[in-house]
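#struct-help
A.M.: can someone run this one for me? Single chain, 160 residues.
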Amino acid sequence: MLGPDDLRRYIREREIEAELLPVAEGHTSGKAADSLDIRLEEVAKTIVFVDEDGGPVLAIVRGAVRVRQNEFSRKVGATKLRLATHDEVLKFTGFPAGGVSPIANLCRDRVYMDRRLLDMEHVYAGGGSEAFILKIKPADMLRESGAQLIEIPAQPIPSQ
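D.P.: on it. Structure tokens below:
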């Protein structure tokens, strides 16, 4: 299993301008935003889907949205997508659910990043565990994730 130390080493070896920040709770976008006292829109979450053949499809989107799965599946050429189980998240990314980093994970194919993330100076993403958040520039996240830049169909999550 990969974790924050692996991510820290990856950042150092690749000389990426990024940092891992400790948080009280980071297993959801909302908890991460609250822990860092940032807006939910500044969070980038990596969602792991599974296609009809059992293969992974990753979507990197803003924390304040919910991916419209049916539209997204059509856009990426899948018949149907479902959310990965915790075991599948670990198998496909190497990171535990709630801490999936958009970079340095095991999944290099069928990774998509929402182009609206590029509007941000920095984003805060999964840091390898629920206890860390990765602060990174979206352009670096795009390059290091190997993602294809697209507009991922999504809708705002209703405010609580």
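A.M.: thanks! The beta strands are 18-22, 44-51, 56-62, 65-67, 81-83, 111-114, 123-126, 132-136, 148-150, 154-156.
D.P.: also worth noting: The chain is about 25% helix and 30% strand.
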